[in-house]
């Protein structure tokens, strides 16, 4: 329980040993955990109490090793400048937190890969005159956010995944934050690229948006059963098999493009197809919510 002290008319609460112990063990309800974290930002005594409780858990030695490794990697501090000449520097904490929350995919090689896909599609369409570029882009585009989600969450993507998943801001909240970051990059970029490409009988450039969202959420939901990488292989591979499988490998470029556009029209065009993808996205979101506790532990490979 919290205990309070009286300061004039204001009552200021502090963290009790029991509250700190429950927070360190990860059993404190999320609203109370957020309240505790906000309080210790300005209360050194309570921060020391919570730190001592965390050091007493199984994660304490791991966190101590990580802290020592980070401190050892830092360069030696430079001599202090005179007070009158020392510039004031503001560390962009919010930007750093946002960049970390965005996930390894957006920070790493995934974003350049998306840019290469977009630039390659434009170069293929206007450099070689290949007529089926939009159909090819629409076939690949729904897999892009699936790959981003697979590279953004899980022990293979984040060395501190176990620690982050145990915090109040980790687990499902972190997974959804990184999924939104991946979608916020890939959806507008690839849709704009599709608008710049010749139609050539392919569906509209935005026809892949609901399938992309449904596949990303489906991968996230399936990851709670089989892990991130396996889930991405199943959803992304299933989509590619559905749209590319019926296209004969021996077809010429123009015939293959037309066959692919025809197959994509079956999967993407029309109220029925889009409604099915919307339903799949909703069902995946419901499954993710129902499986919420699973995301508080590593999701495997």
* Helix residue percentage: 55-70%
Distance between the termini: 39 Å
Count all strands and give the number. Answer: 2
Radius of gyration: 25 Å
* Major sheet size, sense and barrel closure: 2 strands, antiparallel
State the secondary-structure class.
Answer: mainly alpha
Oligomeric organization of the protein chains: single chain
Mean pLDDT: 78
Supply the number of helical segments.
Answer: 15
Beta-strand portion reads under 5%
Note the overall shape.
elongated
Strand order of the largest sheet: 1-2
Unreliable spans are 4-10, 86-91
Secondary-structure element string: EEHHHHHHHHHHHHHHH
Task: Write a brief structural summary.
By secondary structure, the protein is mostly helical. It has helices at 17-24, 30-40, 44-55, 60-73, 93-102, 104-107, 110-127, 133-140, 143-152, 161-165, 172-195, 209-226, 228-244, 253-268, 271-290, and strands at 3-7, 10-14. The model is unreliable at 4-10 and 86-91 (pLDDT under 50).
């Amino acid at each position: 329980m919290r205990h309070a002290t009286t300061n004039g008319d204001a009552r200021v609460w502090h963290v009790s040993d029991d509250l700190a112990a429950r927070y360190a063990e990860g059993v404190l309800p999320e609203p109370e955990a957020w309240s505790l974290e906000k309080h210790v930002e300005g209360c050194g005594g309570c921060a020391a109490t919570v730190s001592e409780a965390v050091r007493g858990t199984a994660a304490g030695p791991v966190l101590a090793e990580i802290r020592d490794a980070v401190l050892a990697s830092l360069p030696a501090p430079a001599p202090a400048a005179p007070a009158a000449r020392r510039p004031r520097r503001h560390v962009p904490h919010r930007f750093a937190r946002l960049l970390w929350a965005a996930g390894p995919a957006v920070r790493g090689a995934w974003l350049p890969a998306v840019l290469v896909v977009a630039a390659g599609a434009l170069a293929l369409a206007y450099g070689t005159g290949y007529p089926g570029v939009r159909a090819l882009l629409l076939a690949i585009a729904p897999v892009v956010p699936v790959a981003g989600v697979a590279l953004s969450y899980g022990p293979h993507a984040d060395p501190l995944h176990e620690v982050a998943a145990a915090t109040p801001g980790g687990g499902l909240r972190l997974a959804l934050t990184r999924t939104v970051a991946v979608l916020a990059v890939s959806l507008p970029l690839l849709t704009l690229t599709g608008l710049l490409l010749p139609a050539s009988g392919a569906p509209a450039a935005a026809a892949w948006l609901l399938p992309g969202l449904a596949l990303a959420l489906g991968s996230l939901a399936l990851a709670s059963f089989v892990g991130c990488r396996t889930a991405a292989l199943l959803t992304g591979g299933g989509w590619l098999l559905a749209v590319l499988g019926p296209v004969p490998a021996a077809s010429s470029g123009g015939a293959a493009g037309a066959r692919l556009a025809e197959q994509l029209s079956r999967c993407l065009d029309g109220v029925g197809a889009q409604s099915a993808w919307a339903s799949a996205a909703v069902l995946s979101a419901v499954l993710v919510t129902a499986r919420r506790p699973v995301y508080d532990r590593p999701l495997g490979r």
